[in-house]
Amino acid sequence: MTTRTDYHSETAREFLVKARVYLAEGDLLQASEKGWGAAAQMVKAVAEARGWRHQGHRQLYEVVDRLVAETGRDELVDRFNAAGALHINFYEGWLSAEAVRRDLDRVERFVNQLQPLAS
Questions:
Q1: What tens digit of pLDDT does each residue of 25-40 get?
Q2: Across residues 64-73, what is the average pLDDT?
């Protein structure tokens, strides 16, 4: 049986793969939204594993703040903010392909850092 934690973690990984495909195809809006989705889903995985609330954007950012306090890894905020920029880009379309690629790299590092915390 798949747990909610597993579901969010697996979805984060799937979204990362799709983000890279969209980027390669030149669909920056979809690449951006999948990047945001990957980060958000991994935050949800960690929150679910710990019994923390994770409904809505505000609570996702609160989870990241709690993880920074717990781990001392300030870079988590910067990497989640990169995901937030991708989310905005889905609506605004102002990021270049290079900027989307850079932010997806940050999101991938974020997802990889959080993965062990979801166990």
A1: 999 999 999 999 999 9
A2: 97
Q: How many domains does one find in the chain?
A: 1
Looking at residue 97, which CATH number applies to its domain? 1.20.120.330
Cβ-contact 76, 113 below 8 angstroms: yes
Q: What Å distances lie between residue 42 and 25, 39, 92, CA to CA?
A: 25, 5, 24
What pLDDT is recorded for position 84?
98
Cα–Cα distances in angstroms (integers) from residue 113 to residues 61, 94, 106, 109, in the given order:
16, 28, 11, 6
Q: What is the pLDDT of residue 91?
A: 97
Structure-block tokens of residue 90:
């889905």
Range of the domain at 19: 4-118
pTM: 0.96
Average pLDDT over residues 72-76: 97
Alpha helices in the chain (DSSP H): 4-25, 28-50, 56-71, 75-92, 97-114
Whether residue 83 contacts residue 110, with contact meaning beta carbons closer than 8 Å, is answered with yes
